[in-house]
Amino acid sequence: MEPVIVAGAGPVGLALALALTRYGVPVVVLDETDGEEEARPARTVVLRPDTAAFAARLGCADALAGAGARWSAWRTMRRRRLLERVAFADGAHGEATDASPVHLPQHALARALRAALAGEPLAQVVSGSRLAAVEQDEKGVSAQTRGANGTWWRGSYLVGCDGPRSTVRKLLDVRFPGRTAVERHAVATLRTELPWPGEALLHRSPARHGGGRVSEVSARPLPGGVWRLDWLLPPGRDLVTPDALVARIRDSLAGWAAEAADGSADEGGAPAGPCHTGLVPPYELLDTGVHTVHHRLARTWRRGRAFLAGDAAHLLGALGTQGVDEGLRDAENLAWKLGLAWHHGATDTLLDSYQAERRAAVAARLRAADSALPLLRDGGAVRWRTVLPGAGRGRSTLLTDGHLGRGPLGAAPSYPRTPLAAPAGLPGGTAVGTFPGAPVVDVPVTASDGASAGLRDRLGRGLLVVLVAPGTGVWDQRHWQSAGLMPRLTEAVAALPMRAEVLVTEAYPGAAAHTVLVVRPDGHLVAALSGVRPEELAACADAVRGGAPAGSGRRTSPDGAAADPVAEPAPAPGPVDPPGSPVLDSEGD
Fold first, then answer.
1. Which class for 573: exposed (0-12), middle (13-18), buried (19 or more C-beta within 10 A)?
2. pLDDT bracket for residue 79 (50, 70, 90)
């Protein structure tokens, strides 16, 4: 079967390609650029805990730790008053925990993903390849590229991760409606010392009753004493001159130093340091820019064997929402579904579930942001709860939620209406602290070989079947498989129609002993069952794969044994002859 073609080599396209190779799927990445990532310190990304964990599983853990910064705390300030401080630091060591977002330059993330992909034998990145045409038939997709490496490529599926001006989206004739210039920010990256080392900050000065615009600036740390500062700009297209930007930098730095010096911005008084004098602390300006936020959502994310992901499918970014964050969620969601499709065939239910889940989640995020914008920026008089349910706690708290990945603006999505839901009314179904379709809690688990890890560390390999078994921490690893319910559970999982792994955990929120959790490859709960129930486990697995594809069955190796999707050999990706040639027309699944 032909490789999956990924158009675009930004963070989303590279992450999708890497994730596909982990499922044993060959990939061709069509990259318009020369393969070199331009270093722009003012262009950074913020990854929430779930997307940071996804990037780490793809081989970017060192980049996240070296080029990225986890915040020890987040401060929300209104004029000269501290409204909220959310601490992420470990109380014993003062180090930021995994609950903190990760802030890093986008080029560092892209370089790490590209380096990891370079080590994958199933992946081929073709630089200098500009997509020119796409043709589909019932067996696959043909893509024509122009440029130094122009040719025809044949693939099983095509995913457009080629950005806001997506060529794939245009070739598929998919509309991209939305709003232009929802927000504008002046951005500066500089090396300096702020009064709160390692802590990110949102500083707002709302408009007075007499009118005017909200003044807002955020400061987010990076490694090496570097900070990214963003100032909310008034509507319009007025140029931000260098002198005006320098004035903003000096005003912000001097104001924070003065507030820290008199202790008005810190509940315990100002910490000692050279910048707490009320004067402008020394700084080195590294990079500047103007960031314009657009809100757009593609009408459809799937046309036959072609899909859209990342900025090709959606644009967002107001009120702390993160486009790259959502794009990585697209990649994680789509990768395991295309992996199943590539190895076992797929129903339309499985392939359509990508749009049903991800488009609905991004649409909800955009609705929340669009509803909150008039209230947060213009001080509108509309009652909060009639506009944005759950937002009655206040404007600053809502903004904090957006920046920290909480609430309707930022929380990791759930898919309660997924078409891949477990059958209703399972006799053995039971309630736990996670609703079906929601992300699972990252509890410690033990694998069949005795290895211990976090539950989310085991994602991206197949279905996870987790037995809640108090006391397993003292089990003898030599007898792990023969203890308690394990033999029966292992046998039931081995008979499932897709790859699955058995894990055990001491406890899970809201789960009784001997509860069995069925978890999708992207970490969303399928169902919780009371005990080992082979028929219901099989029903859950069938639901996850969208039902059995026509003429399907688990692929087998020549000796008749079930083939492991990751171990199954895949053809090396490469160019093909143009459509209409005998070679192309003879290719099939």
1. buried
2. confident
Distance CA 483, CA 101 (A): 39
Place of tokens 């509890």: 443
Q: Where do the H-state alpha helices sit in 150-208?
A: 167-171
Confidence category of residue 483, pLDDT binned at 50, 70, 90: low
Left if phi > 0, otherwise alpha if psi is -120 to 50, otherwise beta: which for 272?
beta
Q: Is the CB of residue 201 less than 8 Å from the CB of residue 77?
A: yes
pLDDT at 589: 34
Q: What is the pLDDT of residue 61?
A: 95
- With 90 as the cut, is the pLDDT of residue 245 above it? yes
The dihedral built from the CA positions of residue 475, 477, 478 and 479, taken in this order, carries a sign that is positive
Cβ-proximal residues to 463 (8 Å cutoff; 6+ apart), any chain: 496, 498, 499, 500, 501, 518, 519, 520, 521, 526, 541, 544
Annotate 139-152 with b (16+ C-beta within 10 A) or e (fewer): ebbbbbbebeeebb
* Alpha carbon distance 125, 112 (integer Å): 14
HSE at residue 70, side-chain half, CA atoms within 13 A, is 21
As a residue count, the chain comes to: 589
Closest CA to 172 of 201, 131, 205: 131
Strand 463-468 to strand 500-505: parallel, antiparallel, or no bridges (unpaired)?
parallel
Q: What is the value of pTM for the model shown?
A: 0.89
pLDDT-derived band at 268 (thresholds 50, 70, 90) equals very low
- Strand stretches in 206-282, DSSP E: 215-222, 226-232
What pLDDT, in 10s, does the model give residues 488-499? 999 999 999 999
For helices 395-404 and 360-378, give the axis angle rounded to 10 degrees.
Answer: 140
DSSP code, position 292: E
Q: What is the DSSP string of 443-505?
A: -EEEETTS-EEEGGGG-SSSEEEEEE-TTGGG--GGGGGGSTTHHHHHHHHHTSSS-EEEEEE
CA distance 134 to 113: 26
Place of tokens 């014993």: 92
How far from 232 is each of 23, 367, 410, CA to CA, in Å?
Answer: 42, 21, 19
Cα–Cα distances in angstroms (integers) from residue 515 to residues 424, 468, 498, 519, 530, in the given order: 18, 5, 21, 13, 5
String of DSSP letters for 198-227: TEEEEEEEPPBTTB---EEEEEEEETTTEE
Q: Is the confidence at residue 440, as pLDDT, over 70?
A: yes
- The answer to whether 537 and 465 are in contact (CB under 8 A) is yes
Provide the 8-state DSSP code for 196.
S
2 residue type, one letter: E
